[in-house]
Design brief:
- There is one protein chain.
- The chain is mainly β.
- The chain has no helices and 25 strands.
- The strands form five sheets. Strands 3-6-9-11-14-17-20-23 form an eight-stranded parallel beta sheet, with no helix packed on it. A six-stranded parallel beta sheet has the order 10-13-16-19-22-25, with no helix packed on it. The chain has a five-stranded parallel beta sheet with strand order 12-15-18-21-24, with no helix packed on it.
- The chain is globular, with a radius of gyration of 18 Å.
Length: 253
């Protein structure tokens, strides 16, 4: 199904295919379009090809997902393509899409003045080498029973060095609370780079990354990001000067 019209509505529907279909369940394909999609069951699509249940061509959109049921597809995920900067506020919510993860196929910038909100219980999987840079705001607050996870898309197991990093650049703001970050550090990067003083990291676990766990650099003298309750493992907290063999920046994927 290709709902590429702003007048389309999907409510109380089912998109299903035979066991041999190679198509994805649904593709949102218009840049910035906000299609409503609620009470929809998406199942048994793309089983032969491993196609995703839902494909978005961009992160820079806010589909009105609500109470979706996604199961028995080639890949029970929301697959997000593209690689650019966001032009609007965006929310990612696994609970709204039946508990399935989001997969970022390319690297994205959260643009200055824009926000990315990740709700409790959401899983974000990033392809090899992919990174997320924040120039605006990243708000990811989980709970003790529904943490937020940033991990690799390559496997279902923890694999250090799969994807690259999350970076809060100068002037960015954000809050990471009850979050898990693992399998990052591609190219020797720190899993979490903080170059802004307006960032709070609280009650998170940063573990099994190929490089350093956290790099709180570039905040300026007398200005420090707040970190509390964190449990970094295999990748130490680090706040010194930049090491040439541990690059903080990579070219866009």
């Amino acid at each position: 199904m290709l709902p590429w019209s702003s007048k389309a509505r999907m409510w109380w529907c089912r998109t299903a295919g035979s066991t041999t279909t190679r198509a994805t369940g649904c593709i949102w394909g218009v840049w910035g379009w906000l299609p409503p999609c609620g009470r929809v069951e998406i199942d048994h699509n793309g089983e032969a090809s491993g196609a995703a249940a839902i494909v978005q061509t961009t992160l820079s959109m806010n589909p009105g997902y609500e109470a979706l049921s996604i199961h028995d597809n080639g890949a029970d995920v929301v697959y997000i393509g593209g690689s650019a900067g966001t032009d609007r506020d965006v929310t990612l919510s696994s609970p709204a899409v039946g508990g399935v993860p989001y997969v970022l196929a390319g690297s994205w910038d959260v643009s200055s003045g824009k926000a990315l909100t990740v709700t409790a219980g959401t899983v974000v999987r990033l392809h090899d080498g992919v990174f997320l840079q924040v120039y605006g705001r990243l708000y990811a607050v989980g709970t003790a029973t529904a943490p937020i996870t940033f991990t690799t898309a390559a496997t279902t197991t923890v694999t250090p060095g799969g994807w690259s990093f999350i970076a809060f650049r100068g002037g960015a703001s954000g809050r990471l609370e009850r979050c898990v970050v693992n399998s990052a550090g591609r190219g020797g990067n720190a899993a979490l780079v903080i170059e802004s003083s307006d960032v709070v990291v609280q009650d998170c676990r940063i573990h099994h990354n190929a490089g350093n766990g956290v790099y709180p650099g570039g905040c300026g003298a007398g200005s420090h990001p707040a970190a509390g309750g964190d449990r970094p493992q295999r990748g130490s907290l680090r706040g010194g000067g930049h090491r040439p063999d541990h690059p903080l920046h990579e070219p866009r994927v």
